[in-house]
Amino acid sequence: ELDRIAKMLVRRDFELMTEREKLEESKKILEIKVEARTVELKELAEGLEETVKKRIKDLEKKTAELEESKRALLNILEDVEEARIDAEEERNKTFSVINNLADGLLVFDTEEKLTLINLQAQDFFKLGAGETTGKSILELSELPAFKPLSNIWGGKAQKIFRKETSLSENLILEVSTLPIMSGEKNFGNLVILHDITREKTVERMKTEFVSLAAHQLRTPLSAIKWTLKMLLEGDLGPITEEQRNFIEKTYQSNEKIIELINDLLNVARIEEGRYIYKPLPGSLEDIIQSLINPYKEEAERKKLRFEFKKPTKETPRVMLDVEKIGIAIENLIDNAINYTKPGGQVTISLNYDKKKIKFSIQDTGIGIPKEQQKRVFSKFFRGANAIRAETEGTGLGLFISKNIIEAHGGEIWFESGENKGTAFYFTLPAGAKGEFEDFLKKL
Fold first, then answer.
1. In what side-by-side order are the strands of the sheet with 104-108?
2. DSSP code string of 124-169
3. From CA 403, how far away is CA 409, in angstroms rounded?
4. Least enclosed by CB within 10 Å: which of 44, 316, 373, 377?
5. 3-state SS, residue 66
């Protein structure tokens, strides 16, 4: 029994020793694992520390960037505020300038509503900004003060250049409108009202003076003319050839002065609006035919080819002032012959359709310089090349002709090139008598 117990104890000791060895081995393995885990944790801790440091650096950098952005934003806000203040000052300056302009200004938006009216315009219409701002053109047209202006507009904003209207007996305005553009975009329309009362008064006084002076001069000039004519015809006794030459030159000079006086009187009548006063049915072809005969001799003397191309069919009769239309045509023929060199050609033609009769006169003369063509129908204008050519003229003929044609409801224009000749054209309405009388009433 003791042996069995001893064997059992030996076996037990062996098992314990085996278990101890296993425990020792597990302990070593565990220590290795713990050491490995410790190293891993240490590396992880070091990596985490690096990450934290990097994150802190990134955060500090972003914080600095945010501070910089904050400073930049504050600077921008300061600049914006300064710009706003500057813009406000410029706006105030602009409004101050607009309100202190001598001309009246009206600004309409794209919906044709009044958005701005300056002090001068308010004074013109005797209305305050509160009575007009925000109203459309049609609403403004209902105000009595705006009636003359609305008559020019026709109830709708449109481009107008230097049209005249009278708001009262002592206030005449020159009206111009233009679109307010920024690139291709339209922001509305600007209406400019310029007070021309003083200019009109001076112009009327000047016209009255010219008319008075011309009338006063014409009487003694006529007396001189008839006295010279009596001398030339021998009514006052015989004269020598030398005396005749001197008297003829004096007679021609007197005729030129009388012609100038007549032109000045015509201009005065035009400006007074009383030039066309005898409209009757007439044939433009017959008027031309009666006028060109005296010019044929002058054309032959100057060696010009002078031709009138008549229409193939009879032209319709039109309402016209025969005397005044004759003056207009004579002025055009005079210019064509005077400004065409010997050997050239002057051609008159007449065409018509159901509504208009068209007159044209073409020459091969010195032409009109391009840079001076805008002034052709102005008073006292003569081209530089015409002056150099030493041709005679007052510079009133085309001004008178234009007013005569337009007073008949017609149009006049020209085409020209320096040293290439000139062609003048005009048209007259071929309407019935009643239509022409209606037109004269509108004038």
1. 114-117, 104-108, 185-195, 171-182, 163-168
2. HHT--HHHHTT-BHHHHHTSGGGHHHHHHHTSS-----SEEEEEET
3. 10
4. 44
5. helix
Helix axes 197-232, 241-272, angle to 10 degrees: 150
Question: In angstroms, what CA-CA distances link 329 with 289, 292, 323, 430?
Answer: 11, 9, 10, 18
Distance, in Å, from the CA atom of 51 to the CA atom of 43, rounded to the nearest integer, reads: 12
383-440 pLDDT per residue, tens: 887 777 656 677 888 988 998 898 888 999 999 988 889 999 999 987 544 444 454 4
124 token code pair: 């013109």
Question: Which of 411, 406, 401, 405 has the alpha carbon at shortest distance from 379?
Answer: 401
Which of 384, 288, 386, 283 lies closest to 329, judged by CA? Answer: 288
Q: How far apart are CA 172 and CA 27, in angstroms?
A: 120
Beta bridge partners, 188, equal 180
Other CB atoms within 10 A of residue 283 CB: 16
Q: Which residues pair with 412 in a beta bridge?
A: 426
Report the distance separating Cα 400 and Cα 330, nearest Å.
11
**What pTM does this model have?**
0.55
The H or E element that residue 187 is part of is strand 185-195
